[in-house]
Amino acid sequence: MGNKNSTITTTGHSSSVSTKNKYKKSLPSPLPATSGSAAITTNSTVVLPHSVRRILQNFLLIWLDANIDESKKDFKNSLKHLRHIVASITTFTDSQECVNFLSEIKKEKVFMIVSGSLGQYIVPEIHTLSQLDSIYVFCGNQLLHEEWAKTISKVKGVYTDIEPICKAIQIDRERCDQAMISISFRGIDPLFMYTQLFKEVLLEIDDDDTKSIKELVDYCRLQNDIAEDEIKKIEQEYHHHSPIWWYTTPYFIYSMLNRVYYNIGEYSKALSFYEQALDISKDTLPPNHPDLAACYNNIGLVYYNIGEYSKVLSLYEQALEIRQKSLSPNHPDLAASYNNIGNVYNNLGEYSKALSSHERALDLRQKTLRPNHPDMAASYNNIGNVYYNIGEYSKALSSHEQALDLRQKTHRPNHPDLADSYSNIGNVYYNMGEYSKALSSHERALEIKKKALPSNHPDLATSYNNIGQVYKNMGEYLTAHSYVKRAFDIRRKNLPPNHPSLAASYNSIGSVYCTMREYSKALSSHEQALDIATKVLPPNHPDLATSLKHVTA
């Protein structure tokens, strides 16, 4: 079958392609007017108006509380504390207005602070929205609101003070900035050109080039995306710091660069950005700083996407070594590292090492996460993939069904993670000879992916390829050929010429031609698969042996 769907995590959270999810359910009416908020004790800033805007960050923060009073000192102090972490904060006192705003968000992830009494009504209605990442309940009665909050995985905690909320958001902000976003295969959009403007001005201007700084801040103000106090900070203080300081400091610039390069669809540019970030981080951070681990992880992510697994392994192991030295033994980022290393070993065909790494990740997650946390599903999914590869199909099926069950509880019905689970379950049924069940699972996966992904996304190719293989074994060869050819066309357009998935496509086409008794075409396809496999896979990899067998049979 085609590629299994592994889940890579960067800082303890599984990733997925996010899609717009319009919220159409009516909220209970009337909602309570009181918020039950705790006393706010911190230290003011300007709140951005809650007009719908396209911000240049990976995320935004929403605060819903019926008792918000922007004139009160405690509220201003809380905002000032939050603004050390987040450039854009949007506040609401009306629940329906907040939901309407949420429903218009297309790409950014949303962190949400909500009062206890409003939260108990609104959170159960909106928590499945894909754009809503994390929820922090701010209340005066912690015990009361923990009862309903503990049933919803996106609720990070129930708090009576703003300071622990800020700490939690800080962790999630860093994770959001660094988290894997699947590389899209669209062309360069205007946001990339804007990014180049920022990068060139901040890193390449002469020290006395005030004209360039003026152009930068003028551009920022025109966008209506960036907080005025952040713009003023650059305008007034640029010459007080080095360009490297501005590049690495946690303002909107780095967040914007990060997101653009993940989505720009050009591997070389993504790699160049992350390598530059690593060089800067090495110059400015101590040798075992966690941010260095994130840099190694991000570079590894690019190599993973182009199938250069030996390079990936070295980078992920460097990230793990740093995290082992700098983090507590049960830190979620360690689980993320073990998870990612397990995926690499699985792709290298070293299945015992892969299983060991994934089981270690699962053990850490069981100690630190809620039972229905999305990362738990990711671990079960990846363990299932290893069992699949070593032919233990009953264990593989059990693991994938556990992953699917968790994802059905925490995700909306058409979330891409559900497609991964259906696809993997379909692969297991295929190898157990239960082709009708396999076809049903793969078609369900394809249905979800079509709604969530661009028409030429490589994950669609995986589903087309898998469905083609099922039809081949059911004896419907022409239908099989149309599916595997469609998968091949997508992969050839969007993947590097020696990507392992292309080898898988050549083998799939070859096997269909073989069943159709078109042996010369079959041999040609298998030879092309072998040529790629020889270049990119280690000598003892099972897929290389399979390609060699096809050619010599």
What's the helical proportion of residues? 55-70%
User: If you compute it from the alpha carbons, what radius of gyration comes out, rounded to the nearest whole angstrom?
Assistant: 25 Å
| Spatial gap, N to C terminus | 19 Å
Topology-level CATH name of the largest domain = Serine Threonine Protein Phosphatase 5, Tetratricopeptide repeat
Quantity of strands, as a count: 5
% residues in beta strands: 5-15%
Order of neighbouring strands in the sheet with most strands: 2-1-3-4-5
Largest sheet: 5 strands, parallel
Q: What's the CATH H-level superfamily name of the largest domain?
A: Tetratricopeptide repeat domain
What is the mean predicted local confidence, pLDDT? 77
Assigned CATH architecture of the largest domain: Alpha Horseshoe
Detail the poorly predicted runs. 10-56, 178-197, 254-265
Number of domains: 3
CATH secondary-structure class of the largest domain:
Mainly Alpha
| Category from helices, strands and their pairing | mainly alpha
What best-fitting shape do the alpha-carbon axes yield?
globular
Counted by DSSP, the helix tally is 24
Topology pattern, helix = H, strand = E: EHEHEHEHEHHHHHHHHHHHHHHHHHHHH
